[in-house]
Amino acid sequence: MGTERHMTSIDRETIIQKLRDFHLQMENYIEYCRRHLIRSASAPSVSQLREAVTKLAIESAAVKPIVETTVGRRSLSEGRFNWDPWVGAFIRDYSDGTSMRRIRGSLDAVLQSVEETIGYLESKDFIESITRPIAPKSIQRPKVFIAHDGPSDLRSRLELECWRMMLEPIVAEKQTSLDESVDSKVDRLLDGCEFAIVLARVEVAIDQDSSKIPRGNVIDEISRIRAELGDNYIILLEDGLSLPSNQSTGVVYETFEKENFGEAVLKVWKALRSKGLL
């Protein structure tokens, strides 16, 4: 075990307290999930569960790097399915027993890693290794471009998940413009990205003949993404959408249902991992 930098006693106590606070929040959330599963009188609603896990996911963005630097990165498996417990623990899909079982297994794995990290930071070996504080290294996060059809909870979810997995989400309208056209801005931003996620929803779709297709800006950005990034992208199409015939050949896409968006997020992480970005 080892950390990327030495720290003072004050640093150490602050980090340990942060880990303990996070550990307590996770235990409370696990109890929430348990009451939801057994439908007790005090069982939380799905909306309450999702609110609780969103707060945990935000906290995990700061805790995960500390834990993985100390005890290493781990993965879970079930059959041929493998996943990062830090992703699985904070999925907001409570639709069936399989989802809840994987969430609980992920939560247990994250709890164990947090406990091991606390134990190591409190150990004699670690205390003796403390020398002097030095400036932490700056973190270079891989950039992921998010093309979308307007502000939405789903887009916000993708941004949050990117930050949590040590990736930097790039949303064009949130970036500074340099006296340039929208097309030029998108091209400039894509030039600095390693991967792209395209999100298209039914509620803002365009009717074309007898089908529904994504908004025009999404179709245009798919072409730009393919030209700039090759096959380093994934398209998430909500059920009911299809791509125009001139865009569908050789295009990689996944469909999703809004109620089970967590499954789409897992497909994104699988694609990112296959490209060596996770």
Q: Please, how many helices?
A: 10
Kindly report how far apart the N and C termini lie. 21 Å
Total DSSP E strands: 9
Mass-distribution shape: globular
Structural commentary:
The chain has 278 residues and is an alpha/beta fold. Helix content is 52%, strand content 13%. The chain has ten helices and nine strands. The strands form three sheets. It has a five-stranded parallel sheet, with helices on both faces. The longest helix is centred in the N-terminal third of the chain and has 30 residues, at 9-38. The chain is globular. It starts with 8 loop residues before the first helix and ends with a helix. Mean pLDDT is 81; it is low at 1-7 and 130-137.
Secondary-structure map with pairings?
Elements: H1 9-38, H2 46-71, E1 76-78, E2 81-83, H3 85-88, H4 97-121, H5 124-129, E3 143-147, H6 153-164, E4 168-170, H7 182-191, E5 195-200, E6 206-208, E7 211-213, H8 216-229, E8 233-238, H9 245-248, E9 253-256, H10 261-274
Parallel strand pairs: 3-4, 3-5, 5-8, 8-9
Antiparallel strand pairs: 1-2, 6-7
Helix pairs in contact: 1-2, 1-4, 2-4, 2-6, 7-8
Please supply descriptive tags for the structure shown above.
278 residues; 2 domains; disordered N terminus; two-stranded antiparallel ribbon; 13% strand; alpha/beta; five-stranded parallel sheet
Give a brief rundown of this model.
The protein is of the alpha/beta class and 278 residues long.
